[in-house]
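Much of what follows relies on a compact textual record of a protein's fold. The record below shows the convention in full:
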Amino acid sequence: MAEPGVDTCTRSSVITARAAATFEPVGRSVATARAFVRDTLQGWGYTDVVDDAVVLTSELVTNAVIHAGTAADVLCLRTENGVRIEVADRYPEREVPLQGSSRSLTDPDSENGRGLLLCAALASRWGVEYSPTRKQVWFQLDLPERPVGTRSAGPVLPTELLPVADDRVRVAVAQIDRHGAITAWNEDAEHLFGYAADQVVGKPLGDLAAWPHTPGIGTGIAEALRLSRWEGSYGIRGTDGRVIPVYASHLRVRDTNGEPSTVCLLVRDYERAVLQSPPRTPVDSSNESRSTDPFEVFIGSPAPDDLDGLLQRTVERARDMLDGDAAFLLLATDDETELEVRATTGLPSARQRFARVPVEAAGTGRYSSARMPAVHEDLSAVPGSVPLLNGTGMRSVVTVPLKVEGRLTGSLGVAAEAAGRYSNEEALRLQFAADRIALAVESARLGELERLRRGSLSFLVEASDLLAGTLDRDQTLALMAQMTVPTLATWCAVYTIADPTSEPYLSYVLHEDEERIDGLKALLAKIPPPEPVPSPGARVWTAPADVAHRAALRTSMRELGLASTPLSSGIGTTLATAAAVGGETVVLPLVARNRVIGMLTLGRPTDDHFRQEILELAEDLSRRAALALDNARLYSERMAISQSLQRSLLPPGLPQIPGVEVDVIYRAAGEGNEVGGDFYDLFPINDDAYGFAIGDVCGTGPEAAAVTGLARHALRLLAREGLGGPAVLERLNAAILDEGARSRFLTLLYGELWPQEDGSALLKVVCAGHPLPLRLRQDGTVEPAAEPQPLLGVMDDLELYEETVTLAPGDVLLCVTDGVTERREGSRMLGDDGLTEVLTTCTGLTAGAVTARIMRAVERFAAEPPSDDMAILAMRVPEPHTD
């Protein structure tokens, strides 16, 4: 039963679309229901009735979820001439009106029941329907009457006031799938941007778009493509690397299978009138209620919650308010000496974004300062008075300051292509608007700066930890680039300078798209490196962009002569490289210990300037990176010297001994392979005899290296003088003691070997404090081949003796340093017994196989890497071959 006096006509028109949703009985459901209805009607194109529908839905859902306490079912039905919305609750109780009752339908002062009053006031038709389990309120909103086919219309304008367009207006149409990749690309898109369809289909739109967005702040292109509708300005990088400003209208649709995609219509920015939706109602401040917030009047509601969105909305509203062709907004630096371009609309290029201009101009007169309102009736009469508008075709401009508590925080300007468009009256109107928004802009700017500073601090802490974690030069270069791209720039290059007389060398190149690294590296290799200037701060380097643009132009001209030939891979690479470096490039010096050791180069493909906060962060990073790189250089030099000295302390090669197999494995422990520690040697004494030694100097470093070098060279010299083993070691002991405080004690196994005619080998050995050599016989038994004697470098008087050992065919003599026997795993140690056990399994193996098995057993004994140097020397008398 319907309420008396209410039209119960329901579906007189054909339903062309429907959308339904259910909302739980909680307070937040009201806002969710409003958003559902707004998005649905905007998606259907019924923007004329959106506001009324949202108001009515809000009241009816409030009655259901708050007052009735039940879930609310909302159904939207689209017809040819309007929309019907039904809101149902699960509370069927109703009043039966008494005939003749003078009581109104509901009390206007009562919160409960206002939805019916609003339906009566706003809806074309409405009604209430009851069932045993639910109550449903519906309302019909008809679209406004317009001439057939008219969506919106404007007044008749004189020809000279019509928007400027090319002879043929081209509308690029691109379709983007749910992942942001291009699936369709029409002929006008090919003409506007230079890419053939097969070049871009399958690639993300973000690879081509120069989105006016600071990372981490505001709406990005990925978010914009997911919105049901989006309209605004951004740039598309053409094949020549230049950014083409466009105005775009995005519509989110779905196919018959439910798969969503986004249709993008794009025109040149100065032809935006083709796509731009006119405001539903013009802003007329004279008709606004006194209680209306002037900020909301100018910006609109809801106001953007991010700085970039607020600034972009501001310039667009300012341009529309004064019927201008372009508008711009600049924010002041903390010291109020410069203004940074943060938002523009209607200008033919976004090149000026983040560019800086002085607050006080060089000239005199009323145009010289941004602190006062100014009207430029004709810019051609005062060339360069507004540098931002140079070359844009703008003739007249009005600028006003943004101030908070008397402090300059920014500047807002509106420009027109015709001269004499603005007077003091327009300046006052714009100043009034600027005063309304200045505080909100400053608050949003401070919030953004705080977020950037927190992010910068976190970034620098992480960067410092990473750079401090390595002393490898190549890894330091890679970390510098990886921390820079893509956080601070789209690509970077690191030049290094070996010494003050060397030219800068291109050491590392990185681009956020790995496929462009080789082309970028090749392009930079053809350009003379930037001048190594030690002064701090970033400076602009134009060479990469100039060379890239010239290369792209030459390539395009050649392609025009071969229009029927498809693009070759070389041409495609050239154009991609040009696009990669087509924007601004800056160079920061890498200064460490008062010397320029290189340059960090940052670049981006868009025409945007680097914002000052990013450059300051990059400068902080470059100081840390320079010190890390110089530390890595010093460490590399030290390691090179250390390793060269280590190699000089070891024999260059092993001599071939007739009838004896010899193999050595040497492993220096510790990062960088410190000099000193263990050593070995094998050398010919004369035609029939060979000397061998394996030793371990106490400690590491230069002092230990000195003793190692002394021992190895003294052994060779004394042995070749014809001295026996004990005499050789006694004289070496005296030489070590002569070093005084620089001396180190030394454990040494020294021996002399004579191959015999019967196939055996005779050895005479002296073991001075060293782990005993082990002899492996053919039958698998293992026994020490010498007795322990005093080590060297401790006592003056040593009584050493040599022992004779005969190695029969198949026997092995194994000599090791204590790094092998003292290999530990917790409280366990390999020891002499463990080494003996491993050696017993080596019967029949060659000398090389014996050393390899011993080393493998030592490495597997513990999970941790070895902490001491290790040397393994094996000598084996092979068995005679039998036919």
